[in-house]
Amino acid sequence: MSALSRPSTSALFDVVFGVVVMGTVGALIGTILGGSSIPLASGLGLALGAVVGFLGGRRFLVSILVGTVLGGLLAWLVAGFEKVSFGAGAGAAMGGFLGVQISMLLDMRAARKAAALEAGDDSTAAHSAVTKS
């Protein structure tokens, strides 16, 4: 029987970070849905956060955290303190969506740079709009 290796501190941090962020967002969404929905929404957020953290979605979780804070602050400034949970929940959703899109664009940019380095400078010059004479 083989021994299980201990997870790295980085992986453990990602899981805990995911649980905290997504559990908070779940609680905010549960607050919006109604008081009896808080345990269900929080539990679902905790489970999703653990999975996302385990899979290494740190950029995604940071974008949700930033969206939550900015959405809550904007709602506080615009509508008052009683609407902070609404703004934070909506900001988390928008932050998650934008985080996925930005992450995808960054991955595409990195892949394009790696392909350009692999192909060499001569082949990238052939695709350029400027031609040498």
UniProtKB/TrEMBL annotation:
<protein>
    <submittedName>
        <fullName>Uncharacterized protein</fullName>
    </submittedName>
</protein>
<keyword id="KW-0472">Membrane</keyword>
<feature type="transmembrane region" description="Helical">
    <location>
        <begin position="12"/>
        <end position="32"/>
    </location>
</feature>
<keyword id="KW-0812">Transmembrane</keyword>
<feature type="transmembrane region" description="Helical">
    <location>
        <begin position="38"/>
        <end position="55"/>
    </location>
</feature>
<feature type="transmembrane region" description="Helical">
    <location>
        <begin position="60"/>
        <end position="79"/>
    </location>
</feature>
<keyword id="KW-1133">Transmembrane helix</keyword>
<feature type="transmembrane region" description="Helical">
    <location>
        <begin position="85"/>
        <end position="106"/>
    </location>
</feature>
